[in-house]
Amino acid sequence: MPADTLTIPDGTASRRRLPPLPRARARGLRFRRIQEADLPFLSLLYGSTRAEELAPLPWSAAEKSAFLDMQFRAQHSHYMAHFPDADWLLVEWRQAPIGRLYLERWPSEIRVIDIALLPEARGQGLGEAMMRDVMALATRDNLGVGIHVEHNNPAMRLYLRLGFTKREDKGVYHLMRWDPAPR
C-alpha cells in the first residue's frame, strides 16, 4: 500500500450497531460510520481544530495546509492502529458532515478517542448532547467515560461542567474521567 494512502477499518466494528445517541439525534444530528470518501472532510475538520494554533506562524497557506495534512495523516494512522475496535462515526447535521465522534468500549470505560465539530457547529450544544449520550450509555453499562483534552481546549469548560475530573497530566493533555453515580 502506498505510504500516502489512508484506510479505514472495515471489519467487525463496521457490522456492529451504532451506539444509541438520542439527545444528539433530537438536536438533528445523524451518525454513520466513516468511509474512505470521508477522508478529505476529516482532514479539513482536523485542520479547523488547529487553525487558531497555526495562525501566528509565518508560514504560507500552502505550508500550513501541507503541515496539517501531514498531521492529520499521522493522527488517523495512529487511531486506526491503536483503537481497532472503535466506532468511527461521522457526524452530520442538516444533510452535511460537521464532525466526528470516535468511541471505543473498554472493560472499565467508554473512551472518547476524539470528538470534533467544524467551527460553525460549535457553541450550539451539539457536542454537549453527544457527550451526554455517551455518559448515558456509560451509566447504562456501569462504566466511566475517559477522554484526553488539551490544556487550552475551550471544550475543557464543558467537560468540567459535565462532571469530568482531571485524573492525570499527560503533558499537552489532561486525562479526564467521568464516572456515574453509584447505583
Automatic annotation (TrEMBL):
Keyword flag Transferase: yes
InterPro entries to which the protein is assigned, alphabetical: Acyl_CoA_acyltransferase, GNAT_dom
Recorded GO MF terms: acyltransferase activity, transferring groups other than amino-acyl groups
Tagged with keyword Transferase: yes
Key words, A-Z: Transferase
Origin superkingdom: Bacteria
Signal peptide: none
Chain ranges of the N-acetyltransferase domain: 29-181
Protein's name in the database: GNAT family N-acetyltransferase
Organism: Stappia taiwanensis
